[in-house]
Write a structure and sequence with these properties.
Blueprint: H1 10-35, H2 41-62, H3 71-89, H4 94-110, H5 114-117, H6 121-132, H7 140-156, H8 160-170, H9 181-187, H10 204-226, H11 229-240, H12 246-262, H13 266-276, H14 284-296, H15 300-315, H16 347-360, H17 364-379, H18 397-410, H19 414-428, H20 438-444, H21 452-469, H22 473-490, H23 500-512, H24 516-530, H25 543-552, H26 557-573
Helix pairs in contact: 1-2, 1-3, 2-3, 3-4, 3-7, 4-6, 6-8, 7-8, 7-10, 9-10, 10-11, 10-12, 11-12, 12-13, 12-14, 13-14, 14-15, 15-16, 16-17, 17-18, 18-19, 18-21, 18-25, 19-21, 21-22, 22-23, 23-24, 24-26
């Protein structure tokens, strides 16, 4: 007759524990098979099935009263479940914090201390559990593993104060006085798991390395942005020596290049940028930083080449690699910030950088072609929301049109410039008021764009230059006059110094046409303006106006006024 084991016996308990452990190990192996399947539907299905299996196993374990003998397995299942779920979701969610909390509460249930500690929240739970763990050494490996996941959650949500306190408690054998998170992570030593311990997707030691790398990189980037370059350099070196997957290493090397460039070590910076560009990865950030480096070195050819490569790199669709079914460094990094020096933007933003630098460096033919390509990108709807590069501040779409027109005129393509100007005017026709009431409308909060009138007047200015290039003096005077009329009516009192460029050019044109009465009236107005204090002499002009300024030859202004005064006096003498 077969012997039956009573349900409540220790043999039955051990049998269930073995079955639960086998189930955990089987699900971990299934997740690892999924990891090796690449980007495929089978991978997703295997991983999702493993996740649901771990969820069901956890419900089975937590459906029974908490027991010290079962807790190492239960906590390990919680860790595997959180790791797999966070990796599949590519981030941490609030309910994962609840899973951690439930695991801690189960530990305290075995010591009958739960009720007194619940009011202190998650931080209080951790203090209580780590205190209890000194009496339950068999729980230490699993608790440190769970603490690593708690640290990852708090790091990803910037709860650095809670993270510091947790690490101070974990490093109980070390000095608790330190508040240096990097040092605390380096001194944290998770206990080694037993050889017969349940399988884990990711052990505590590996998780510690991920945390150390992620925090070092986050801190280095923050110090770089705030200007604390020596500390940034130290933290970034720490990150580079850690568990860095290739995409993160590219970012770290690029940040090191930025830091060293700002510290005045361009050659060392270049070495890191070359290393970042090796192998197949995202090339945008290092190429943008290389262009900045060559600009600082005044190597225009290399700068332009880097920007051309940047445009090409951003035009290629990036096929992401299958993420590991683990907590990786990328999961713990902040979301991309447009203000970050590592943000390389979109293809249209890179194309704008290339076009504007060509225009600034006198490469008018190249600039014109790049601006036309950029306008084609913007107008075909492939990038409907063009926003300028954040550093330095760039233009909005109307100013891109204006710069394109300026580049075309500079390249001797006046007819194309007129076409661009006409397109801009047609697009702004519904926005521009029928009569110049810009500043009153701005105060009243009307919907017209605050720069609409200056854009329209600048368009007239550029059209005037285009007609001059085509030899059509009558049309040129008409456009210059419209520019001045709009500016004089729309500009507030005391702000007329941005209008003199168009005025001087109109004066030159009127003089060449021998239209003396109109030229004399304009000359008197310019004479009066030159006697006013020049408060805005250092005001930075938009690029399209800077380009116009080069055509007007500003050093000759005083000479022009003096020559005109002399010619008037000679006429009076006659």
């Amino acid at each position: 007759m077969a012997h039956r084991t009573p349900p409540g016996s220790s043999a039955s308990h051990a049998s269930c524990l073995d079955l639960w452990r086998e189930k955990n190990d089987q699900l971990v192996q299934q997740a690892k098979v999924a990891q090796d399947s690449g980007l495929s539907p089978r991978r997703q299905q295997l991983a999702q099935d493993a996740l649901e299996g771990l969820r069901g196993l956890l419900h089975s374990l937590q459906g029974l009263p908490a027991a010290v003998s079962v807790l190492p397995l239960e906590l390990t299942v919680i860790c595997n479940f959180i790791t797999l779920r966070a990796s599949l979701a590519q981030g941490f969610t609030e309910d994962l914090a609840q899973d951690i909390q439930q695991g801690l509460e189960r530990v305290l249930e075995t010591q009958e201390q739960l009720k007194a500690r619940l009011e202190h929240g998650l931080r209080g739970l951790w203090d209580s559990v780590l205190y209890v763990s000194s009496l339950l050494p068999e729980l230490l490996p699993a608790l440190h593993h769970l603490a690593g996941l708690q640290a990852a959650l708090w790091l990803s949500t910037d709860r650095l104060g809670d993270l510091t306190l947790l690490l101070q408690t974990l490093n109980v054998s070390q000095s608790r006085a330190s508040e240096d998170l990097l040092l605390l992570l380096k001194t944290w030593r998770p206990p080694a798991e037993e050889s017969d311990a349940p399988l884990t997707l990711q052990d505590a030691q590996n998780l510690r390395g991920v945390l150390l790398t992620a925090f070092a990189y986050r801190q280095g980037l923050r110090e770089l942005i705030t200007g604390n370059l020596p500390r940034a350099l130290s933290s970034l070196h720490e990150a580079a020596s850690g568990l860095c997957p290739r995409p993160v290493l590219v970012q770290v090397y690029t940040a090191l290049g930025t830091c060293l460039r700002k510290m005045g070590s361009p050659q060392r910076a270049l070495l890191y940028l070359v290393a970042a560009l090796k192998g197949e990865s995202t090339w945008g950030p290092p190429l943008l930083e290389a262009s900045r480096l060559y600009r600082q070195l005044e190597n225009t050819a290399a700068e332009i080449e880097c920007l051309e490569l940047l445009v090409e790199a951003l035009s290629v669709a990036h096929i992401p690699e299958a993420p590991q079914l683990l907590i990786e460094v990328e999961l713990l990094l902040p979301r991309p910030d447009p203000a970050s020096p590592l943000h390389c933007g979109t293809q249209s933003q890179a194309k704008y950088l290339l076009a504007s630098r060509c225009l600034q460096m006198g490469r008018a033919e190249n600039a014109a072609e790049h601006y036309l390509d950029l306008l084609a990108l913007l107008l075909d709807g492939s990038e409907p929301k063009f926003s300028p590069p954040p550093c330095p501040p760039g233009p909005c779409v109307p100013e891109v049109f204006l710069e394109a027109a300026a580049a075309l005129i500079q390249a001797g393509r006046a007819q194309d410039a007129l076409t661009v100007c006409e397109e801009l005017l047609s697009r702004m026709s519904s926005l521009h008021p029928k009569r110049p009431r810009l500043w009153e409308d701005a105060r009243r909060g009307t919907k017209e764009l605050p720069h609409c009138s200056p854009w329209v007047s600048a368009t007239y200015l550029l059209q005037g230059h285009a007609w001059v290039q085509l030899g059509a003096q009558k049309e040129a005077i008409s456009e210059f006059s419209r520019c001045l009329e709009l500016l004089f009516q729309a500009t507030p009192m005391g702000k007329e110094q941005g209008n003199q460029d168009a005025s001087f050019h109109l004066l030159q044109t009127l003089r060449r046409l021998d239209r003396r009465d109109e030229a004399t009236a304009l000359w008197r107005r310019l004479e009066a303006q030159t006697e006013l204090p020049q408060e805005n002499a250092a005001w930075s002009l938009p690029l399209y106006l800077e380009t116009c300024l080069g055509w007007i030859h500003p050093p000759d202004r005083e000479t022009l006024l003096e020559e005109f005064r002399t010619s008037l006096l000679e006429t009076c003498d006659l």
